[in-house]
Every structure is written in structure tokens, then in C-alpha cells.
Write a structure and sequence with these properties.
The chain is α/β, with parallel strands linked by helices. The strands form two sheets. The protein has a seven-stranded mixed sheet, with helices on one face. A seven-stranded mixed sheet has the order 7-8-9-10-11-12-13. A hairpin with a 2-residue loop joins strand 2 and strand 3. The longest helix is centred in the C-terminal third of the chain and has 10 residues.
């Protein structure tokens, strides 16, 4: 499994020969101008919620690639009505896709489309594929529901927001990593805007002092599990 950071909360995942894009917000991110969305491969697009900084490039990528949009019922149906391929889910539900098993789990945030219309309830994803398991938290506060995840799935990586203001901060993300029983963390949802800028050195030290590994990738950088 290969995971690429495309800035903000956007990820690329290569697993079992399939390409997944999570929360595509690239063309609106001034820090990601070197990423060409027309070069990205996508068989699936996973969306945690409807906010523009997670959905801006959905239609451009999905219409070009034919990717299946996977999200809660309201978001998936929204894109289905536009003629895109889609697969609706809801909290607690899972589905065996051709790249692995996906479960849609609870996140504590808000969710609306740029025009203010309802975007269902926000969520995150637990993905099991190629004998590796990852948790993509989405935009969320720290929540006790995270403790449910390791009851079903032993994680190899937790991808957690750390930018504060709109989501958890670094300190809450450390607690979240305890809740999900995973000491290998990929941080995201930081630095894109002034509200969520962080001190990288301080963040890494806090995780290190807690006996955990926080990775902060450059935009376009990848890791392999």
C-alpha cells in the first residue's frame, strides 16, 4: 500500500492495483500548485464530508477517470445526480470493494456543500487492504467513538488532523492515537490556511515524547506500508 500526500486533507492511495483519491482539494490549494490533477489516476474517490476544501476537484477528476465516488448517502447521491459513478455508505457500514474492505466511521464535525446545502453527517474511513489497515479520520474533534475502531481492526497507520481550530490539535491527536491503539501517525489538515498553521518541530516532539511517530509529508511525498 502506497500513500501520497497531496496537501491539506487530500491523499492518494495505491492498493491492490487500484488508485484511490481521498478528499480532493488541490486546484484551490496555493501550496499544491505543482500537483496536476489531470495526471492523477483514480478508480475511487473517498469523501469524508462535503466542505469545499475536501470536494473541490471531485467532479473534474471523476468525470475524467470514471472514478466511483464513495461517501455518505447524501454526498454520494449528490454526485450521482450529476451523472458520476457512486457508492453510498453510512456510519457503521462496510463494503468489500475490489481493493479491500472499507468501513465508514463516525467523525465529529460539520458537513455542507459550498452552496450551504446539506452534506449529510461527516465521517472517516477504516480501510483494510493488502494485509495493511489504515484509519483516515477526516475532519474531526477527539471523540470516544474512536475507541471502537481497535475492537474490530488492528491499525498499521492512523491519519489524523492536527491543525486545531477546525479539528483536533496535536495534543488531542495524541490521545486519539491512544484511543485507536496506533503509534504510527500521518498528520494532515495543517498549514493550508492561517487558522491551522502549526509548529512542525514541536508537534513531532510531542508525539515522540509520547512514544509515537508523527510523519509530516511534503506535498507530493509518499510512504509505503
Amino acid at each position: 500500500m502506497k500513500i501520497t500526500f497531496y496537501g491539506h486533507a487530500c491523499l492518494g492511495i495505491e492498493v491492490s492495483g487500484k488508485y484511490i483519491i481521498v478528499d480532493p482539494f488541490i486546484t484551490g490549494n496555493p501550496k499544491a500548485t505543482h500537483i496536476d490533477i489531470n495526471s492523477l489516476k483514480a478508480d475511487y474517490i473517498l469523501l469524508t464530508h462535503a466542505h469545499q476544501d475536501h470536494t473541490l476537484d471531485v467532479e473534474a477528476i471523476a468525470s475524467r477517470t470514471g472514478a466511483v465516488v464513495v461517501s455518505n448517502y447524501e454526498i454520494a447521491s449528490h454526485y450521482g445526480a450529476k451523472g458520476l459513478n457512486y457508492h453510498p455508505m453510512n456510519h457503521g457500514g462496510s463494503w468489500n470493494f475490489d481493493f479491500g474492505k472499507v468501513k465508514y466511521v463516525i467523525a465529529l464535525h460539520t458537513s455542507s456543500f459550498p452552496d450551504g446545502s446539506y452534506g449529510g453527517q461527516p465521517g472517516g474511513f477504516v480501510i483494510e487492504g493488502e494485509h495493511k489497515n489504515i484509519y483516515i479520520a477526516g475532519d474531526t474533534a477527539l471523540t470516544m467513538d474512536m475507541k471502537l475502531i481497535p475492537m474490530r481492526t488492528k491499525l498499521d497507520l492512523a491519519i489524523l488532523p492536527i491543525g486545531d481550530n477546525f479539528t483536533m490539535d496535536v495534543d488531542d491527536a495524541i490521545i486519539a492515537s491512544d484511543f485507536v491503539d496506533c503509534d504510527k501517525i500521518l498528520g494532515y489538515h495543517f498549514d493550508t490556511f492561517g487558522y491551522i498553521e502549526i509548529n512542525h518541530t514541536e508537534a513531532k516532539k510531542k508525539f515522540f515524547d509520547a512514544g509515537k511517530d508523527l510523519m509530516l509529508l511534503e506535498i507530493g511525498e509518499s510512504i509505503a506500508l
